[in-house]
Amino acid sequence: MAEYHLGGRTCDPPVQRMVAGLDPVAVDSYGAGLLGLSWKDIPHIRMAHSILGRACSG
Fold it and tell me: Domain spans of the chain?
């Protein structure tokens, strides 16, 4: 989903990836990168980085 994981528009073209992991911050930051976004521009990822997990630049 291009806007958020429980709804929003479908990616066009589809990303064709499934992301899973034990670190929710890493998973969210990697997903942001797949959508062409910087995790640093997404408030909940920026807030959770180094507290709940570690963001990645994937």
Answer: 1-58
